[in-house]
Design a protein that fits this description.
single chain, alpha+beta, two-stranded antiparallel sheet, globular
Length: about 90
């Protein structure tokens, strides 16, 4: 496993392990969320990871990860409907 050295805002050195992160398969059972939304939500809520760390692992921008997490939370609350719930009338 490869290690990467990064520095936080206060200059403290953080060593991140570039190994594997276990995500249980049952979290993907709920099909109301996309795969990316499930992964980001799991890593943030269960693994207590920062958005930046999740972004590095998933090779995404920090803002994208934050947006995906926010969208997942809104879907869970029912404020955003699934993409296939289009109205028949325009």
């Amino acid at each position: 496993m490869k290690e990467s050295k990064e520095y936080s805002k206060d200059g403290e050195q953080i060593i991140m392990d570039r190994g594997y992160i276990d995500i249980p398969s049952f979290v993907f059972k709920d099909r109301t969320l996309s795969v990316l939304e499930v992964m980001v939500e799991y890593l943030r809520d269960n693994k207590k990871m920062r958005f930046h760390d999740i972004a590095v692992i998933l090779s995404r921008d920090d803002r994208t990860v934050w947006t995906v997490y926010r969208r997942a939370k809104l879907k869970r609350k029912g404020l955003i409907k699934k993409s296939n719930d289009y109205r028949e009338e325009l």
